[in-house]
Amino acid sequence: MPNNKIVSIDSKKVRCEVCSVASLVLPEFLGGKELELFESVVTHCCPVHRGDYIFQAGDTFRSIFAIKSGSIKTYTRKKAGNNQITGFYLPGELIGLDAIEEGVHHSSAKALETAAVCEIPFDHLEELSSTIPGLQRQMYRLLSKEIFQETNLLTLLGSKNAEERLAGFLLDFSNRFIKRGFSATDFYLSMSRNDIGSYLGLAVETVSRLFTRFHDDGLLHVERKHVQLKDMDRLKLLFNGGDNQSDQKQHG
Amino acid sequence: MPNNKIVSIDSKKVRCEVCSVASLVLPEFLGGKELELFESVVTHCCPVHRGDYIFQAGDTFRSIFAIKSGSIKTYTRKKAGNNQITGFYLPGELIGLDAIEEGVHHSSAKALETAAVCEIPFDHLEELSSTIPGLQRQMYRLLSKEIFQETNLLTLLGSKNAEERLAGFLLDFSNRFIKRGFSATDFYLSMSRNDIGSYLGLAVETVSRLFTRFHDDGLLHVERKHVQLKDMDRLKLLFNGGDNQSDQKQHG
DNA sequence: AGTTTTAATTGACGCAGATCAAGAAAAAAC
DNA sequence: GTTTTTTCTTGATCTGCGTCAATTAAAACT
Over 50: is that where the pLDDT of B245 sits? Predict the structure, then answer.
């Protein structure tokens, strides 16, 4: 049973500092009174620990969740029994957006490490978005962003090459860290190799071997879950499929 | 240059009948006056032809588009020059939702056949969703649905098995046809084998071979783009990975 | 009509990456 | 602390599917 105290985190890890929920969900021009109104809506903001569920597939949808610190993975269950990782989420990102339509969570969300997650009841948020000007638009933006990101992942998985996928994965993380003001080249991968494999459609062993290869080739320095990107240019080249010659000029 | 007359469609094709835009975008309980108000917002509803663009990557985002008849594909350009298909859209579905956040289209949308597409200017829709009760919620639902569907696709692509992917692809189409009241087992695949391959992360040749195999095994009847699903049970079994034994009970 | 272009199918071959297996290193449990 | 469990890595083998190539069929032109 996890207690409710945030435990200190291994100093070797690259920390993910706390993000303001308001700055994430609200439009920038929000006034003080409206900010207050908004803060009153964020009911819980509780710490979770590695392995804790934020929600599970099948749960009734009531809230979306904003990540303040730590990291979360989402996955769907495949009938064969193994899970398919569908996303990794970092501070400043939202989860649960896919459950709005049918009112039921289709995926499960689990903490990858000690994290702070804020619950935002959706019906309150909906009401509020009718009264606070700009919040409605911001909600549309956030939902659209999620669609965009999943499309990006689809594009990444479209590449049949394993190197390309892992390079793309790392560069995506790098970009997302930058957006939140963290180091872009030096970070802690809180998920297991198994999770990365599932996410990228690769076997664990392939992921492991690729990390070793990238390390040996001087593209990055990796020690367990700690990664330092060394040669961004070559990583980008890998991602872009530098040696790819299978050129169908146009589809359709 | 496409003219503005809707051409008659090959009788061999399974037709995709026209859908009401209002029924797609609006909540059911909408009154007559609001319906009128909504209809006034749908500026254009023009026919497009095979190969016509609805929008292209880089275009400024102004509208979302509802498909009334026909089918559309969306894709992103990969640096290597080839395109990555990210979605196929049928009557009653919306495209352009991924462009709201940044105000720019990241993907291109192209007609797969003669189609009727309605343009819905987004700022008008936004205004309207402040005045028509329930429309805001409906918009959230539609955006959420798109996220859900992309997550589904991610799960599908997670399977390394090619059979599983094609079976999943066909079953997904079947389900979507059912939702719109069309035949669930007998349909016309307006996209090329190449497009299907790109979408599923497979080579054209593999897609072609799989169709032949499925046909020979009595799972379906296929003649060029016309497909009849014969044995749904076995297709579902394939999709569920019936012979899959790689069972990691839990991720994380 | 005929000609060109594009799409689809099928076969042969090879390789990237899955799978199997075994050992090492952490992490978790006690 | 020790033991157990899980995760990660590395090697050896095998195979599914990508790639290349050639044929056929169907659109899309003129």
Answer: no
B137 lies in the same domain as B208? no
Task: Determine the Cα angle at A150 with ends A14 and B240, to 5°.
Answer: 110
**Domain-terminating residue out of A121, A136, A157:** A157
Would you call B78 and A145 a contact, using CB atoms and an 8 Å cutoff?
no
Q: Within this chain, do residues B99 and B208 fall inside the same structural domain, yes or no?
A: no
Model confidence at B73, pLDDT cuts 50, 70, 90, reads very high
CB within 7 A of strand C (chain A, 212-241): 224
Write out the residue range of the structural domain in which residue A51 sits: 21-157
The token duo for B97 is 């939702």
CB atoms < 10 A from the CB of B217, how many? 12
Closest by CA to A22, choosing from A7, A37, A44, A5, is A37
Beta-ladder partners of A188: A226
Torsion over CA: B199, B120, B137, B179 (sign): negative
- The predicted-structure confidence for A92-148, as pLDDT tens digits, reads as follows 899 999 999 999 999 999 999 999 998 999 998 898 888 887 888 889 999 999 999
Please tell me the distance from the alpha carbon of residue B230 to that of residue B128, in angstroms, as a whole number: 45
Asked if B146 and B163 sit in the same domain, the reply is: no
pLDDT digits (tens, 9 = 90+) for A158-192: 887 899 999 999 999 999 988 877 778 898 999 99
pTM: 0.87
Residue B202 near residue B159, CB atoms below 8 Å: no
Distance B109 CA to D21 C1' (A): 33
CB-CB neighbors (< 8 A) of A150 in chain B: 147, 150-151, 154
**Beta-carbon neighbour count of residue A150 at 10 Å?**
23
CATH number at residue B127: 2.60.120.10
Q: Do A58 and A142 fall within a single domain? A: yes
Q: Is residue A114 in a domain?
A: yes
Other Cβ atoms less than 10 A from the Cβ of B29: the count is: 8
A192 touches strand D (CB under 7 A): yes
Whether CB of A205 is under 7 Å from strand C: the answer is: yes
Residue A200 lies in a domain: yes
The Cα B77–Cα B86 span in angstroms is 10
Rounded to a whole number of angstroms, the distance from the CA of B156 to the nearest CA of chain A is 9
Boundary of a domain, candidates A137, A157, A177? A157
Q: What are phi and psi of A67, to 5 degrees?
A: -90, 120
Number of inter-chain CB pairs under 8 A, A vs B:
187
B59 plus B111 within the same structural domain? yes
Do the Cβ atoms of A148 and A216 come closer than 8 Å?
no
